[in-house]
Write a structure and sequence with these properties.
Elements lengths: L8 H24 L17 H4 L2 H15 L6
């Protein structure tokens, strides 16, 4: 590949693609109007997501949300 002469070029391209993918996903998620999980301020082991994990419905909601998100064909 011609760009192999430039150290780090491939990593920079991959990083740009990852940022673009995340930006696209986040934009669609925010525009969908569905309830999104909050960004935790603490790790789970330190009590993060305690409220969500405290009920079976909360755990189910989180599992369903992640399953739906990770099966989204737009992520490919």
């Amino acid at each position: 590949m011609i760009f192999s002469f430039f150290p780090g070029f491939e990593s920079a391209i991959r990083a740009a693609v990852a940022r673009n993918l995340h930006s696209t996903w986040l934009t669609k998620a925010l525009r969908s109007g569905s309830k999104l999980p909050r960004i935790p301020t603490r790790l789970v082991r330190d009590g993060g997501f305690d409220r969500e994990r405290s009920t079976p419905a909360g755990r189910r909601w989180a599992e369903d949300w992640w399953n739906t998100t990770l099966q989204n064909p737009d992520l490919d």
